[in-house]
């Protein structure tokens, strides 16, 4: 019961209420079943068939930009809450747990085994209701291998989340963050190709 007190005088978690909750509309439950049936068509597609995977994701409501690349081992939890910009990329074994909306900007990269987690529970409520909080990855940003971006976070334009970093606060534009929790380590500066050729 919600008013039962735990060992420290706190209310006990109502696990039964959490398990019995139905946080999705009926249409979403149907969509999840259909997507699970279609997932083999996505995951077993040959690696170069990016166009086929774009088509399949769009058929399930994803907004996918021109020449976006999603690799076959990437896991997209709910396609209809995904927006992927032009020339953006989701790498091998990336997990897009997009209970809430996930927006990946133009030319942004989500590297292999990165995890974008747009769902959590309200730990303050004994019934632990589901929270579906959005994630935004700005244009030209890069979420490196094994990094984690938490619910409700924004990674700014051109920012880099270093390998295995844990993002629990917004990342400003054009900054590089690293560590757990992720902290700014330097500013990202793009070099012009003309400068490189003249060196």
Explained architecture:
By secondary structure, this protein is of the alpha/beta class. It has a single domain (15-198), classed as Hexapeptide repeat proteins (UDP N-Acetylglucosamine Acyltransferase, domain 1), CATH 2.160.10. Helices cover 20% and strands 24% of the residues. The protein has 4 helices and 19 strands. The protein has helices at residues 15-20, 26-43, 50-59, 193-198, and strands at residues 63-64, 69-70, 75-76, 82-84, 89-90, 95-97, 102-104, 109-110, 115-117, 120-121, 130-131, 135-137, 142-143, 148-149, 154-155, 160-161, 166-167, 175-178, 183-187. The strands form 4 sheets. Strands 2-5-8-13-16-18-19 form a 7-stranded mixed β-sheet. Strands 1-4-7-12-15 form a 5-stranded parallel β-sheet, with helices on one face. The protein has a 5-stranded parallel β-sheet with strand order 3-6-9-14-17, with no helix packed on it. 31% of the residues are buried. The model has no long low-confidence stretch (mean pLDDT 92).
